[in-house]
């Protein structure tokens, strides 16, 4: 069934022999061809750290709006705070609708190349709120783990494709990435929902892969594939959702899907439900030329190469609401 979403245990994979890996790889390949996601166990991220990151995020969103504005993003590809309704991610696919019902705090990498113009374009500075010093240390510890996990997952994906395990990671030594802390306020807080409005509208992510630590809720995550339409993926506490983005779809020349997904609007079935999602969007080195893989690794869609960073900047700009 196309709704059967496999679970990859990183610890088991790293200890497995070739035969055991082959079975896991086949299940992952099928899911990534049909839907574009799987669940991840054995990632080694301490639950206490995840809980603290979520708690520090809630504390930030509880600050007064005038305080949060001091740390607001100032351009499309930037770090800092985005207020309620600042994004309409469906606009990227030409399906602009209503602004998304969430606030976000964005953090990115601190590495640089020494080229000031390049660095300003692709590695915007983080905006740490001085009112909340614990946020910085907690998020830096958390994103250190997320970068490690992204690299470990990329080695698995390369192996599934029959490529050298370092194929993706060798091109991701100074990758761009964004860690989001997303706050989905309750229906009672937002006061109402416009026709068609969601916490996050239907979209695909832009990068190679995303790592999501989600909270289960009535107004939660839904994913799409051709066989089933929209459905809720399985939830297992302590796992991450791994979903592929547009760069990986292009890199595999259409073999693997970029996951189409959305987060439903707050519901009158749970008017006080508010959720905080931790979403890590991993890309690749921004000057990487992403050349679609030839068969048998590639899917034969005949896609055209892109420069990774240029592609990301173009799509991020299209996701912003005007006014």
Task: Describe the overall structure.
- The chain is α+β, with helices and mostly antiparallel strands.
- It has one domain: B-lactam Antibiotic, Isopenicillin N Synthase, Chain (Jelly Rolls, Sandwich), CATH 2.60.120.
- The protein has helices at 10-15, 18-34, 47-61, 65-68, 116-122, 133-160, 187-190, 246-251, 308-318, and strands spanning 7-9, 37-41, 80-82, 103-107, 177-184, 200-203, 209-213, 221-225, 229-231, 240-244, 260-263, 275-282, 289-290, 306-307.
- An eight-stranded mixed β-sheet has the order 1-2-10-7-12-5-4-3. The protein has a four-stranded antiparallel β-sheet with strand order 6-11-8-9, with no helix packed on it.
- Strand 8 and strand 9 form a beta hairpin.
- Helix 2 (18-34) crosses helix 6 (133-160).
- It is globular and about 55 Å long.
- The model is unreliable at 88-95 (pLDDT under 50).
Strand content: 15-25%
* Succession of helices and strands: EHHEHHEEHHEHEEEEEHEEEEH
Radius of gyration: 19 Å
CATH topology: Jelly Rolls
The count of helical stretches stands at 9
CATH superfamily: B-lactam Antibiotic, Isopenicillin N Synthase, Chain
Helix residue percentage: 25-40%
Summarize the structure.
It contains nine helices and 14 strands.
Please tag this protein with its features.
323 residues; alpha+beta; Jelly Rolls; 8-stranded mixed beta sheet; 14 strands; 30% helix; globular
List the helices and strands and how they pair.
Layout: E1 7-9, H1 10-15, H2 18-34, E2 37-41, H3 47-61, H4 65-68, E3 80-82, E4 103-107, H5 116-122, H6 133-160, E5 177-184, H7 187-190, E6 200-203, E7 209-213, E8 221-225, E9 229-231, E10 240-244, H8 246-251, E11 260-263, E12 275-282, E13 289-290, E14 306-307, H9 308-318
């Amino acid at each position: 069934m196309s709704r059967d979403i496999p679970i990859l245990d990183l610890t088991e994979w790293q200890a497995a022999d070739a035969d055991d890996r082959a079975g896991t790889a086949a299940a992952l390949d099928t899911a990534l061809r049909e839907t574009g996601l799987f669940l991840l166990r054995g990632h080694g991220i301490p639950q206490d750290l995840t809980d603290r990151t979520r708690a520090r995020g809630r504390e930030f969103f509880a600050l007064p709006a005038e305080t949060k504005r001091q740390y607001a993003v100032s351009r499309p590809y930037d770090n800092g705070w985005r207020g309620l309704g600042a994004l309409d991610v469906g606009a990227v696919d030409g399906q602009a609708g209503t602004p998304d019902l969430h606030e976000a705090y964005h953090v990115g990498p601190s590495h640089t190349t020494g080229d000031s113009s390049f660095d300003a374009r692709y590695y915007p500075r983080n905006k740490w709120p001085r009112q909340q010093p614990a946020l910085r240390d907690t998020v830096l510890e958390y994103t250190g783990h997320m970068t490690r996990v992204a690299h470990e997952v990329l080695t698995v994906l390369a192996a599934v494709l029959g490529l050298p395990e370092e194929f993706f990671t060798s091109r991701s030594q100074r990758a761009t990435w964004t860690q989001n802390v997303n706050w989905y306020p309750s229906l009672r807080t937002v006061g109402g929902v416009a026709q068609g409005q969601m916490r996050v509208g239907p979209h695909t992510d832009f990068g190679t892969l995303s790592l999501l630590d989600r909270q289960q809720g009535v107004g939660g995550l839904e994913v799409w594939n051709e066989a089933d339409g929209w459905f809720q993926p399985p939830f297992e506490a302590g796992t991450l959702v791994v979903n592929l983005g547009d760069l990986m779809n292009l890199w595999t020349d259409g073999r693997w899907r970029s996951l189409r997904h959305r987060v439903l609007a707050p519901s009158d079935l749970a008017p006080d439900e508010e959720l905080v999602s931790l979403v890590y969007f991993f890309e690749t080195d921004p000057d990487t030329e992403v050349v679609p893989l030839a068969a048998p690794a590639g899917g034969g869609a005949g896609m055209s190469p892109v420069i990774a960073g240029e592609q990301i900047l173009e799509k991020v700009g299209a996701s912003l609401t005007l006014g």
